[in-house]
Amino acid sequence: MVEIAITNSDGKAGEKITLSDDIFGLEPRTDILHRMVRWQLAKRQVGSHSTLGRSDIARTGKKMYKQKGTGRARHAQASAPQFRGGGRAFGPVIRSHAHDLPKKFRALGLKHALSAKARDQQIVVVDAFALAEGKTKAFKQHIETLGFSNALVIDGAEVDANVKLAARAVHTVDVLPVQGINVYDILRRDVLVLTKAALDALEARFK
């Protein structure tokens, strides 16, 4: 059973709530988390690297010289890889680096990431995450009051407009709606901050 106190807007601990063992109480497996991070980063990779092969070189396709009688090696076009200015053999081509992972495995990976944060006591639950004005200074003061500086903040279906505006200049804090929660962002930040709306949405998602 995972118990955690809700952090009030003044940074003090409030009432305690119990987190679901099915989501936050698993024993984290590094192999599952590793596969999830590789899957996410592979999808991001652009894959636009390419070189010119011999068929892409703008040279004549005519045979360089006759096959026999010259005493020289047999060659065809000058665009062959062994010649200066020729195409590259087995060079990189434009492609997607993405690979598939089963939907159930992805759900399990997210649970293990959440459980890892819970085990390390790096989860903060707040009633709501909102600002009266969309100023970076106000945002920094708010997160300082709550007691963190490097975090992933997960809100409900919609992120507060002022928070979204103010957080853009703070590069150590990411703010996402609950639909955007992912393993890579959870693991790369020191603290995971969940609003009650996000917590309810997660529990409904994995019910």
From TrEMBL:
Alphabetical list of Gene3D superfamilies matching this protein: 3.40.1370.10
Keyword presence, Nuclease: no
Keywords: Ribonucleoprotein, Ribosomal protein, RNA-binding, rRNA-binding
Top-level division of the source organism's lineage: Bacteria
UniProt xrefs under Pfam families: Ribosomal_L4 (PF00573)
GO biological process assignments: translation
Purpose: One of the primary rRNA binding proteins, this protein initially binds near the 5'-end of the 23S rRNA. It is important during the early stages of 50S assembly. It makes multiple contacts with different domains of the 23S rRNA in the assembled 50S subunit and ribosome. Forms part of the polypeptide exit tunnel.
SUBUNIT field: Part of the 50S ribosomal subunit.
Name recorded for this polypeptide: Large ribosomal subunit protein uL4
Organism (species): Hansschlegelia plantiphila
